[in-house]
User: Fold NAD(P)H-dependent oxidoreductase from Pedobacter boryungensis.
Amino acid sequence: MIAKNKIFAIIGSTRADSSNLRLVAKIKTLSTAIFDLTIFDGNASLPHFNPDLDHENPPESIVNFRNKIAEADGILICTPEYIFSLPGSLKNAIEWCVSTTVFSHKPVGLITASASGDKAQEELRLIMQTLEARFNDDTTLLIKGVKGKINDQLEIADSEMSANLLKFIHAFHDLINH
Assistant:
């Protein structure tokens, strides 16, 4: 029996039943043989980033968040695009990690799933590159028009999206294990 990779998935949306959350839940069901995937959707509960609090005793929720990232074999970030950018809550969560090395050389899968998503994906790639995370074109996925492509039962109505998700999962697995 092959050990499963521990994946920590960060959802960019704070909406309770967002398309991004449903998408990651679908990825979790598609990848149960290779990933032990934990979904973090607590961006809204993290305190606002304040460099003055990020020295000797950062807030406990931040320490826990950073530890989950450090302990994972790979990080999956799935986010919508808000006003041609990342949601503020996701940017806030990532900012709490800038003073650390938790993303340095960490394999990441980056999904932008939104109406459009081009700008948010570009921004997310730049941020992760700056933090020295490891990713490639095959572990980066842009899904335009996501609301019409996945329903509440996690059924995907788009065959191209299904194929792209499977390709993404395998590429992410390869990145982690090589």
The mean pLDDT is 95. Residues 5-177 form a domain with the Rossmann fold fold (CATH 3.40.50.360). The chain is about 35% helix and 15% strand.
